[in-house]
Design brief:
mainly beta; SH3 type barrels; Fumarylacetoacetate hydrolase, domain 2; 5-stranded mixed beta sheet; 4 helices; about 10% helix
Length: about 260
Amino acid sequence: MRIARFSIDGNVAFGVVEEAAAPDGGPVLDIIKGHPFAEFERSGQKVPLDKVRLLPPVLPNKVVAIGRNYAEHARELGHEVPDVPVAFFKPSTSVVGPGDAIAYPSFSQEVHHEAELAVVIGRMCREVPRERARDVILGYTCANDVTARDVQRREQQWARAKGFDTSCPLGPWVETDVEPSDLAIMCTVNGEQRQLGRTSEMVRSVEDLIVHITEAMTLLPGDVILTGTPAGVGPLNVGDEVAVTIEGIGTLTNKVIKRG
């Protein structure tokens, strides 16, 4: 099931994406009653997908991101794979949705794309045992961990490099029925392939990351885990269109603009 969050006529709602259900053969959204973090019903009220504005699929309380979780990516930046997962936060104000702009930060001259599988948490959890990790997941979406690489290099703490406004595009929706262990993940810039990998190349699995994170903190419904990026990260410039595509989920597309 694909669950999208969207805006229409000034109202925000969640809906289930139904493929080829519109009169013209396009997808529609069946608006749900309530929200996807509890039992819900489909209303039967449907709207064509191309008539709405897709929003970030969730509004996370926190985004917990994992660095250097693909060995080739660690090596391309001159690092070893860490002994334990490297976790950092991206604030809620960094989150934008599909089609939203990435505003190039004024304090950086080297901004990079990082295509990632994002895990969306479905219920409050802490100290989750590995065998129960899948139980706390609502689903998965595409993410771009946009990074001010020059700032990351010169500042020991990554808050500004990874957490600036618009640095966390998410979308286009949450896919609840995909197996995350071996999915193709790709990033293109202006149609040119930059990154291509598989989630099976992750050093630590989704389950491992949930265990590690919830040892330290409570995750809330709608919180997001970014699972790391494959090799091939590279620069973004004003005017570029960057797209993250993950097998079985969809494509997240954003354009880079000058920060106003």
